[in-house]
Amino acid sequence: MIFKKINPENYKRIVFFTGAGMSAESGIPTYRGEGGIWKEYRWEEYACQEAFEKQPEKVLKFHELRRTEALKCKPHNGYRIISELQSLHTQTYIVTQNIDGMHQRASLNNIIELHGSLWRLRCEFDNLTFNDLKAGTYETLKCDCGNWLRPDIIWFQDMLEREVLSFANEIIGSCDLFISIGTSSVVWPAAGYPKLAKSCGAFCIEINPENTEISHIYDENIRLPASKGLDLLFH
Ligand code: NAD
């Protein structure tokens, strides 16, 4: 299939909806499939509130490892392509399921992090959030109130933040170009957003080397890795 280049000027609002596959070429493992982290670690021991309450230091050590690993990786060319686009088209948003902070490291803006960020901690007792802490210090951090700070991310069995969801709904519901990159779209809201964009009239493109359960709803499917798919569409 021959794809037409995207002319951003033809669109009022562009949304990139990204999942773990967006970071795969940078070296961060995806969730499912080969090298997926939940094959190596049981989430019940490392990524839920119950585990944190039982063994906070073990859980925090695991997340510090995730940060150390993320820092070894660099944003790939696909991030640069989105960054260039954002400098020309200010109504370009990123709605991401990723927690690795890679979009920010690539100097992108208008980012909605559905599942929070590895780079923030919060105290559930004082209702405080701590941003931009340095890697290598998180593991031992406690709040002034004496309680452990937990990563400000959506763990297994957590609810998504209502305000974040409603902002994502508003942005996706009002876009006219929706490009999904590297998500298997098997869990809510990942499964719902492409359908929302489509029902609101957006042109929808999927970039993923593999078929997904909702591939059929897209107007175009690009079976390439993220950076190559973005290059094909925008260069
Ligand atoms: P997923 O692991 O379920 O699916 C990844 C998808 O990416 C697959 O469909 C795969 O075919 C595709 N993919 C693999 N390599 C690709 C590439 N080079 N270019 C484009 N696509 C590629 O990931 P998901 O749908 O994002 O759901 C996973 C959940 O786990 C999310 O909730 C996310 O928060 C979390 N997670 C985040 C990270 C991260 O922050 N980088 C990593 C792993 C998991």
**Helix run count:** 10
Which shape, going by the Cα principal axes? globular
Largest sheet: 6 strands, parallel
Which ions and ligands are bound to the chains? nicotinamide-adenine-dinucleotide
| Span of the ends, CA to CA | 17 Å
| Order of strands across the main sheet | 3-2-1-7-8-9
CATH class of the largest domain, anyone? Alpha Beta
Q: Fraction of residues in helices?
A: 25-40%
CATH topology of the largest domain: Rossmann fold
**Parts with pLDDT < 50 across at least 5 consecutive residues:** none
CATH architecture of the largest domain: 3-Layer(aba) Sandwich
Q: Please, what is the average pLDDT? A: 92
Strand content: 15-25%
So, the CATH homologous superfamily of the largest domain? TPP-binding domain
Describe the model:
This protein is of the alpha/beta class and 235 residues long. It is 34% helix and 17% strand. It folds into two domains: 1-28 and 76-115 and 160-235, Rossmann fold (3-Layer(aba) Sandwich), CATH 3.40.50; 30-72 and 119-153, SIR2/SIRT2 'Small Domain' (2-Layer Sandwich), CATH 3.30.1600. The protein contains ten helices and nine strands. The strands form two sheets. Strands 3-2-1-7-8-9 form a six-stranded parallel β-sheet, with helices on both faces. Strand 2 (92-96), helix 7 (102-105) and strand 3 (111-113) form a beta-alpha-beta unit. The mean pLDDT is 92. Bound molecules: nicotinamide-adenine-dinucleotide (NAD). Nicotinamide-adenine-dinucleotide is lined by residues 19-21, 23-25, 28, 30-32, 97-100, 115, 181-184, 190, 207-210, 212, 225-226.
